[in-house]
Structures are given as C-alpha cells and as structure tokens.
Amino acid sequence: MKRICDVLLSLLLLCFLSIPMILIALIVILTSRGPALYWSDRVGLNNILFSMPKFRTMRLDTPEMATHLMSDPDLYLTSFGSFLRKFSLDELPQLWSILKGDMSFIGPRPALYNQDDLVDLRTKRGIHRLVPGVTGWAQVNGRDDIPIPLKVEYDEYYMNNKSIILDLKIVWMTAVNVLRKRGIKH
Questions:
Q1: DSSP characters for 39-64?
Q2: DSSP H or E stretch at residue 160
Q3: Is residue 57 a contact partner of residue 90, using CB atoms and an 8 Å limit?
Q4: Using the 8-state DSSP alphabet, how is residue 181 labeled?
Q5: 127 near 151, Cβ under 8 Å?
Q6: What are phi and psi of 41, to 5 degrees?
Q7: Disulfide-capable partner of 174 in 22, 78, 135, 145 (CB 3.0 to 4.6 Å)?
Q8: Domain map of the chain by residue range?
Q9: Residue 139's closest CA among 103, 166, 105, 109?
C-alpha cells in the first residue's frame, strides 16, 4: 500500500511541480558553474548504493562529505544554494528516486556512501531493511542538529512504530519545519 501511494503521489507531484522544477534548474545553471543536478551516492534498502538526485547547492570543488562535518560549509554554497536549502527545494528531484523505488516519502534519511558510522549503527539495529525516505522521524526531530546515535534511535523508533498515523504526523511536522526553517544550518 505504501509503495502504491509513493508512486501515485510522486507522479502527481512531478506533474504539478515540473514547471517550477525546470525554473529552479535554469536558475541553478545561470547562477553557478556546473549542472543543475547533483547525483549523490547514498545507502539504500539493505545497504545497497543508489544515486540520489538533488538540485546542486554547492560549488563543484566541494569536498564529498556530510555538510555537518565541514569546517565552514557556507564557503561552498552557491548564491542560489542557500535559498534552495532553506526551503528544502533542493530535495524536489528526489521524486524521481521515489518513483524508481529507491526511496519513499517517509523513512530514514539515506546515508552518504561514506557515513560508515551511521550505516554500521543502522545495520546493527536492522534499520537497513527500511526503504530510505525524503523525510523521516529523525529529520523532523532535529535534522542536522542531532548526533548520529540519537538519529539512529529516532530511526529505530520509526521502524518499530510504523503506521499511517505516524507517517501523516511526519508529513505535518516536515511542512511546519520547512516553513519555519527549523533544523537547517546551511
């Protein structure tokens, strides 16, 4: 049932948001050197790697690491990248990953391929058996502001309490957090 909802909703949103997404892509291309999309290698279901698209918010010479591990990530942000991140618009291309089945709307946020500590903790707790999501329980409870062990605890809570009600609560909390720009550092 969840997969059917993911496919139908992602198709609907891709149709509805196609013009704004094209405009965002054009602005990214016109305001910085490089492509509109950045394909990030992420850890998916059963720890299998997949490529996740995002609108590019960082310069081409940015080190490949989690933003929170950089000494000053703002040095690498493009002029338009900060705006995209504040409103989570850089995440819109992930509708493609949902349509493909690499992601769901709700689930643990997919780890970067080199976040071994996060992947190991999730694997030990069985969280790797969940399809990763655009947003999830850990995202709405701190996003960039929480340490990895706490993030894994939130992911485990989601795994053990999955329900339509919890998913709807996460969708609501995501909308509120995006509008308030809560939990976004860069």
A1: EEEEE-GGG-EEEEEEE--B-TT--S
A2: helix 148-161
A3: yes
A4: T
A5: no
A6: -75, 120
A7: 135
A8: 2-180
A9: 109
- Rounded distance between C-alpha atoms, residue 105 and residue 67, angstroms: 22
Token digits of residue 171? 């969708």
Look up residue 53 and give its two tokens: 């698209």
Give the separation between CA 128 and CA 125, rounded to whole angstroms: 8
Q: What is the DSSP letter of 105?
A: E
- Which pLDDT tens digits describe the chain residue by residue (186 residues)? 899 999 999 999 999 999 999 999 999 999 999 999 999 999 999 999 999 999 999 998 887 777 767 777 778 899 999 899 888 899 999 999 999 999 999 999 999 999 999 999 999 999 999 999 999 999 999 877 789 999 999 999 999 999 999 999 999 999 998 888 665 554
Quick one: tokens of 142? 């701190």
State the amino acid at position 24 in one-letter form. I
What single letter denotes the amino acid at residue 36? A
